[in-house]
Amino acid sequence: MGKGEQTRQLIVDRALTMAQRLGLEQITLGALAEELDLSKSGLFAHFKSKEQLQLEVVKEVVERFTRIVILPALTKERGSPRVQQLFQGYVEWMRAPTASTQSGCILIAMSYEYDDRPGPVRDALVKAQHDWIDSVARVAKSGVGAGEFRDDLDPKLFAFELDGILQSFHRALKLLQDDRAETMARKALSRLLEDSKRR
Hints:
- By secondary structure, the chain is an all-alpha fold.
- The chain contains nine helices and no strands.
- The chain has a single domain, classed as Tetracycline Repressor, domain 2 (Orthogonal Bundle), CATH 1.10.357.10.
- Helix 1 (3-22) crosses helix 4 (50-73), helix 4 packs parallel to helix 7 (120-145) and helix 5 (80-95) runs antiparallel to helix 7 (120-145).
């Protein structure tokens, strides 16, 4: 990686840290330049606009999420092992220093921040969420193909329910600071898997 690429990555990493703390929309190129001890012109040499930087941050978050949550699951056997690894990967993502400076899912935080704010950043987040749901649905469908999940399982509904469990887990852990958050989420996952199995 050349010096220019290293500087660009450093900017994205610091912007991601700021986004976790303040929100993606609150990042300004001026404040970021000051944090990095760069001139504004030096920052503009890498990112021509705030929006371009925001899009790069979203891309970085999605790449990290894919690496921590999705890819490890695809190495597991189809069916329950793969779904359980998705869940475990998400738990690790919630607590990983590469995901955020605090516990929590920055993708969920960004989704709430941009859910009613039209534009390219929202579009990128919508695509990321669609890709996530599609990934879970494919995992569910592969469980049907492996003969573990029942033939009439609706993969999209399965993905909707698993995503709901994870979002509830996030809120219970992050906002409500419920000590039982992970335990309850695991019980909900067990029920979903049991309901999905071939009889």
